[in-house]
Design goal:
single chain; three-stranded antiparallel beta sheet; 14 helices; 3 strands; 4% strand
Length: 304
């Protein structure tokens, strides 16, 4: 186990939790490993967000962790099992007197069925992007990141994996490696092209210190940007824009698909741009589209 893993294990009482699962609950080794894996992943996540002990873990942090699990592509049933495991872990911490209140009480598992994705409206997108100043290398990077997430509908894992060679601004395309290492070409609109071009010209050369691995987006130490780094960037600019919704990188992907369909794009084209293997996955967005069409009908038809 890494030093980081040992630190998180001590701070979050994972050995005691293992003993509880084994000797008090009598669970099978396989089940114990699964429960401990979820607890360890949570510990590493919240420590990266500044929570050095279970007492500092809030409901909001737990909600962000669960959203991260979903963004990694885990099925709703898998995320639901993780939530169940975490509830048991926090009950253990309460019983042991490590914490007084259980932050997982309000934590909801995702339903197995499809649900309507959360999206930002076009004015909210404009407010988010317009709130980012372009006065230094970090904010120029941030603007290009959010422009690509929304303008191309990228998953956060796809964004941080982008190499410089994958970006063709002259042709207006990015080559994206999606799930299962499948590659696809996604068009890049004028606004995103302009933002990325400026970042590559004015900011990235200052950030690259030889450890970039050819990645497009780097942190201020010159290393490839992490998924958590993107989350922090987005959270900072959502707050700056005064948007009250809970916004994740996947919210921008959902907004991309929704706004394309509302603008008249066909489902097959949206499926290709999102990198969905099955068009039934893309069809969740048709519910948004139908809502938009009903609103148009009510607003403009004489008998609406």
């Amino acid at each position: 186990m890494t030093e980081r893993g040992l630190d998180s294990g001590r701070a979050y009482h994972l050995e005691s939790y293992r003993d509880h699962l084994s000797f008090e609950r009598g669970l099978s080794p396989r089940t114990i490993d699964g429960y401990l894996r979820e607890a360890r992943r949570l510990a590493e996540f919240v420590i990266s967000r500044g929570a050095d002990s279970p007492r500092e873990v809030s409901y909001e942090l737990l909600r962000d962790h669960v959203a991260c699990l979903a963004e990694e592509g885990r099925a709703a049933s898998s995320v639901a099992r993780a939530v169940y495991a975490l509830r048991g872990y926090f009950r253990f911490l309460v019983l042991e007197g490590v914490i007084e209140t259980d932050p997982s009480e309000r934590l909801e598992a995702p339903r197995a069925g499809r649900h309507l994705p959360d999206v930002l409206s076009v004015p909210e997108i404009e407010a988010l992007l317009g709130a980012i100043p372009l006065d230094d290398r970090a904010t120029r990077r941030d603007r290009s990141i959010l422009e690509l997430l929304y303008g191309c509908g990228l998953r956060v894992s796809e964004l941080i994996d982008l190499r410089v060679r994958d970006v063709d601004l002259e042709e207006g395309l990015v080559r994206v490696r999606g799930k299962g290492s499948k590659e696809r070409l996604v068009p890049v609109g004028a606004a995103a092209r302009s933002a990325v071009r400026r970042y590559l010209r004015e900011s990235r050369p200052e950030l690259d210190r030889g450890d970039s691995e050819g990645r497009v987006f780097l942190n201020l130490r010159g290393r490839p940007l992490s998924r958590m780094g993107v989350w922090k960037i987005l959270r900072r600019h959502v707050a700056r824009a005064g948007i009250g919704k809970h916004v994740t990188p996947h919210t921008l992907r959902h907004s991309f698909a929704t706004h394309l369909l509302e603008g008249g794009a066909d489902l097959a084209s949206v499926q290709e741009m999102l990198g969905h293997a099955d068009i039934s996955t893309t069809e969740i967005y048709t519910h948004v589209d139908r809502s938009h069409l009903r609103q148009v009908h009510r607003s403009h038809h004489p008998r609406g």
